[in-house]
Amino acid sequence: MADVRKKVIAIIAEQLAKPEDSISESSHFVDDLGADSLDTVEIIMAIEEAFSLEIPESEQEKIRTVGDAIAYIEKHAKA
Amino acid sequence: MTRTVQRRRVVITGMGTINPCGLTVPETWNNLLAGKSGISTIDRFDVTDFACKIAGQVKGFDPDPFIDKKEQKKMDIFIHYALGAAHEAWADAGFDQVQLTKAERELFGVYIGSGIGGLSTIWDEANGYRGPRRTSPFFIPSLIVNMASGQASIKYGLQGPNSAVATACATGAHAIGDAARLIAFGYADRMMAGGSDSVINQLGVGGFASMRALSTRNDEPERASRPFDVDRDGFVMGEGAGIVILEEYELAKARGAKIYAEVAGYGMSGDANHITTPAPEGEGGQRVMRAAIKDADIAAEEVGYVNMHGTSTPVGDKLECMAIQKVFGDHAKKIKVSSTKSMHGHLLGAAGGLETIVAVKAVQTGLIPPTINVDHQDPECDLDVTANVAGKLDSEYVMNNGFGFGGTNGCLILRKV
Fold first, then answer.
1. A-chain residue closest to B69, CA distance
2. What is the ipTM metric for this complex?
3. E-strand spans in B77-155?
């Protein structure tokens, strides 16, 4: 679980060029991290790739914070 | 009811460039006057199987001072170069020191063209293609031709006319000419205008080489671009950007801006002949120069220097020389000409941007940067070529030509202020 959290934060830090320690589970992509709609799409894409997931569009829209992403991955990622 | 539109004077008050001969205007100008070549063996990819292995590559460019790290990967390299050149032009014009009002920003536009756009991005994305779910949302915005204008407008808050022209190697000349007209006829007060291109990749080099357009003098890169020389064998690709700040004359004067030159005339024409071969006797070139002279409302004899398109292709140089002879008649013998492509290579859509800057510096300083590598001037290029060493100029008007594939031509006339 800690692994998922670490990996997600690393991905977002890379995509948004932010230091990892500025990102926490409660960070909102748009409101807290300054992402735009395209950044958000790219973050989801990078997460899909890193965790071998296919997140349906209807589910993508619900992932707004780092915590949302972690929760989704923990629920759906193949062991 | 007939509406009469008063035509306003347009001047250049800022300039910036990124090119194989320099990362600023002063560095470039000094290298060009010294006759230094920026051409070398391509080191960006394996050129083993390529007929042409040389190009004018931009060296030592760092986008960090101009573009936020997070934004860099969302832009093709041609946009990096455009923003680098824009950064210099903006500060050169003094706009880094003033706070423009909303009304001023609404009449300040951007017109940065590109001959090809983000070909490197297309190449990379297609090579790494992993299906529709893995295509980056930044793919399209990072490569489209008008995005240099878009990004510059966002960076500087310029809300006036925003456009981009894509007329191959005439792009830079057209962008500056079109933008100057927007100011002349009152649609804008100020414009950031020019061109940017960077296609030194497998597709770009391979594509132009297949057309037999490129020099294959691979063992002597610095001597490969040799306009007007009998042994020229094609152009050498360059890359970079050339951008100027255009301003309505009275406004520039009122704010005490340093004025480099006036955009006195602008012409456009089409060859209507062939996709890549210029029309016989350079007729398209003749028409575009005549159009610019007419637009400037001067006598042809007043033009003292032509910064020629002069790409170093066997046919192109010959026909452009012929066109100049036809347009200027006896005066053609007295006109000084040169092609700085001999040093920086052919910057494609950025050529007209950079070479307008060169022409402006020439009329401003009275110095003509040379055409290097003219060992044996082609008798079919029988003009007063400033060859190998810089020359002097004493003239109020200079001309800059840009001709592109598709038979599109642009010509600017610049006046000393």
1. A17
2. 0.86
3. 108-113
